[in-house]
Write a structure and sequence with these properties.
The chain is of the alpha+beta class. Helices cover 48% and strands 19% of the residues. The termini are far apart.
Amino acid sequence: MMRRAFHLVAVLAILGLCMPAFAAEHGGGGGAENAIGYGGAKVQLQPFMVPYKSGSGIQYQVVTLRLVLDVGLMERAGCFMAPIVHEKLLLCLHKLKPTPADFVGQRKEVMQKEMLDVAIAATDRGIYSAVEVVDEAMLQVKDEKTGTHMDPKSTTLTSQCK
């Protein structure tokens, strides 16, 4: 009888330690409004001069990328790894030698997926959820509060993660 009570207490203790982690991982405990960390925030990288093929040879285009941080424990690592990922993405774009058509539509989405794969290979899964190619027109639109084109959290992270 004593042994059975000990096992029951041990099982309850283990469940008590595991349940908060399980609830956090599976969306329990308040939802996205109570999420801790940077998840979904974006880190805008310094603009690139990307070589691309044209009819007259190789030309260069200014491209701005944003890393979208994934929700999780590795968010700070994603911020600290941004300069390294920046270099890896530059090498990736140099190797791809994209055409102007690669920056529009479905080809842009495919290129963004390839760049996300490069970012994941340079770091680890669970750090970044997307890589965005920022349109020049989007950079012209300013937020009233921050005076920039991003939300306040992303603006702060962009200044810190360089």
